[in-house]
Structures are given as C-alpha cells and as structure tokens.
Amino acid sequence: MAKPTALNQNSYSSLPKRQVVLTMAGVMLALFLAALDQTIISTALPRIIADLGGFSQYTWVLTSYLVATTVTVLIAGKLSDLYGRKWVLTSAIVIFIVGSILCGLSATMNQLIIFRGLQGIGAGAIMGLVFTTIGDLFAPAERGKYIGFLSGVFGLSSVIGPTLGGFITDNFSWNWVFFINVPLGILIIMLFVFFFPHIRPDYKKPVIDYAGITTLVLWVTPLMLALSLAGADYEWSSPIIIGMLALATVMLLAFLFFESRAKEPVLPLWLFKNNIVSISSIVVFMVGFGMFSAIVFVPLYFQGVLGTTATASGTFLTPMMLGVVFGALISGQSLSRAGGHYRLQGAAGIAILLVGIFLLSQMTTETSNAMALMNIIITGLGLGITLPLYLITIQNAVPHSVLGITTSTNTFFRTVGGAIGLAVSGSVMTNTFPAKFTEGLSPQLTSIIPPDQLSAMAENPQALVSPDALTQLQGLFANFGEQGVMLLQSLVDTLRESLGLAIGQVFTVSFFILIAALVISLFIKQIPLRTNHGEGDEPPSPPK
What we know:
The chain is mostly helical and about 550 residues long.
C-alpha cells in the first residue's frame, strides 16, 4: 500500500490504469451490495415475521434502514472530504457487514430493527461515496459513462433483489438473506485496502462539526419517521406525528443556525449560492418525488386494478428498472460524447419521465397489460436519463475539496423527495379512494352490505389483493343465488374502478410536480464539462 499523498489536481489522474480498474470493481460491488439489501428483504419478510413474530412491527424493518441511510449520507460525504474516501468507505463496508451478521443472528423483531438501522448506516455512506469516487477517478467530461454504469448496477440490483431474496428464503433460510453479504463484503474490503487510492485532503487538522451533525440527526430522523409512519401506522393529526414534525422543524432551524457559523460545516450553506447546485438539488428532489410514487403504486395498480397475482405485480417493476438501466447508460454515454449539454439532456429526460407518468395517470381497468408495461418502461427510461445527469452536473460545478458532501447532497435530496412524495401520495390515495368508492356503489349494494363493512372496504380494498377477504365477501352474497354473483362482481368492479381512479390521481399529482421540475431545470447554468480535476467554474468561495 502506497503512502497517502496530499490532494491536488493531478493526484487521481496519475493513478495506474490497473489500480483504477480494480478500484472501480470494488466500488461497483459495494453499490451492488448496498442497493441489493434495499429490496432483497421484501420477499423474506413474511417468513421472518412467521419466525420472530411482531407483525405490527413489519414496517419498522424497512423504516429503520431508510432513516439510517438518509441520516448517514451527508455525514459520510463530509467526513470523506475531511479524511479521504478510502478509510471512510472501507469503514462503511465493515459497519454494513457487522450489521448484516447481527441481522442474520437476530432472535427478536426488536433486534432485527436495531441491526437493520446499523446496516443502513453503512449503506448510506456507501451509496453516497461510490458516486463521489467516480468524481475522484475521472474528470467531469469522462464521468458520464462511468456513472451510467453505476446507475445500471443500482437498477440491476433492485431488479434481482426480490427474486434472489425469495430463492434464498425458500431454499435455505431467511438468515442467509443477510449472511450472503459477508463473503462479498470481505472481497470488497480487500479490494479497497490494497487498491483504493489513499489520497488525503490537504487539511492540517480537520475540524468536526459536532453541533451540525447532532442537529442534522435530530432533524432528519423525526422527519423521516413521521413521513414513513403517518397515514399507515398513525393518523396525520395524531400527537406523535405532530410532535415529530415539530421537533424536525425546530432542529432544522437549529441546523441552519449552526451551519451558518461553523468553521467546517457538515453541509456548507454557501454551496447553494451556486446556481447549478441549488437548481439541481430542487430538480432531484422533485424527480425523487415522482420516482418513489411510481415504484410503490405501479405494483398496487397491477394487482388491485388489473387483477394480477401478488407475485406477478412485483415483477412488473422489472421492466421499469431495466428502463432505468438502459436510460442511465444512454445518458452517461451521450453526455460524455456530445459535449456535455446537460441542460438540454436533463430537460429531455424529465420530459420523457413526464410522458411516462402522464400515461400512468390515464390507465383504467380497461388498460391492457402490454400498454401498462409500455408506460412503465417509458417512466423508467426517463428516470434513468435524469438521475445520473444531475449528479455529474453538480460535481462539475464545485471545488474538488467539497466533492464528497456535494455528491451526498444529491442523494439526500432525492431520498427526502421520495419520502415526502410517498407521504403526499398516501394522503391523496386515502382521501380519493373512499369518495370514489362511495360514489360508484349502486343502491342495491348499499342496502345489502352492512355499513361497518362498507366503511372498512372504503378504507382498505382488501378484497382486491387478499383471497381471504374475497372469500368473506362471497359468503356475504351466497344467499342471493345468481343475483348474488352479479352483485359481487359489481362490487369488485366498483372497487377496481375506484382504486384505479385514486392511483391515477396519485400519478397526476406527480405529473404536476415534474412539470415544475422541467421548468426549473431550464434555468440551470450551462458550463463546459472540465477535462481535469480542477476547482470548478467560478465556484462561490466559502466564508472567511
């Protein structure tokens, strides 16, 4: 292992090709590992709940991972700017492996939730820093194709995650969903230790912004918890949700106060004086809003409205993710080869995403599977073109000394945008579906079905996704003979139509958010992509 060198413009460009290739291999494997664990657990959760109990804690297994990932990404980005990428990223892999082992050994749901949070800490650092490393290894003019490859890896891992999780659970045990991370993680650590360039930033004595880190954690954690739990586990008006949102607001104000005065802030506010950074952050936030809505509600549409099985409904996300992979590869290659016209290309990507979301909003019970598949492929293509592009854009616009935190900021805004998008979408769904269902019921159905049962169906259309719930309904109409069969079919049709209209309303909200994103993206400053690792195009200077 070579001794660390001080960071300068030529430190990375002078690395041997073999070292660059092996570093890239480690980075791609690390991203694959972290992204895989976001989805691989989904098909294993029913078996986990059967073994450990705690059905009421089902969502917390996912929530703890998401919250920890979101909180960590900014902190890891800043630490890598202060201490260098190598050991921060290697430490993240170690934390992830330890979390994986402990998850696999969990004997209770509470243990699993805590250890999933530990996993999320490692995953958050990984997801932010792998893209930062691309910014280290390659000049902005070359980054497009390599970030496209990483985006492809991310999409691929998301596609195979549920299938792999189901295979491991069925053929081994759910514990191996976590243990499988260990050998791959050890390989990544070896690649990082021996080949990852140890280039340290030129800081005489790094200063840790403890006040900023503390207020960041106390701001983001209650915010993400409130957005994840409201509408599902708690009412929006419940004291616990209001309390968490109030705490998040107070801590955000405290965070801004400390960051404006810190010597080395965890998130330098002066960065947002840069037109490219500020506009890109807003656009990525809005795209995240639309992206997460599509990922969650597309399977629900296929299962609840078109009547596919639960397994089949999940597989319909595969074409969208393949669209993301293809779009990311196209986006990266064209950006590198066509002169770096990111403003035009970004607008084109958002426009394609808009078309996809609009087509999704127009789907009904009469929409064919083939047409629905085409719509989600278009949506995935737009996402794939858009997401890596704005990452390259902001990396090109800032000094190399803040590359880590700037790259992590991109991931942070996308994740928070997604969380807010899900919260808003859930509220739209819960407000729209009952009204449409009540309007669509025939007088015969309202007279036969007990009011409490109608109210339950208006809150949750279980009959569309649960065979047991449908069987109960069949029993309700069994005494009406042939007329009962017709009435039952009428009820199911009403449920499907109402659900389709509600999901369409969700996509309509995302559509208008993305229109705003398209307009805002046109105001981003266009500057040439650098051909070296220089300090960027007239970046704002940090305050003295």
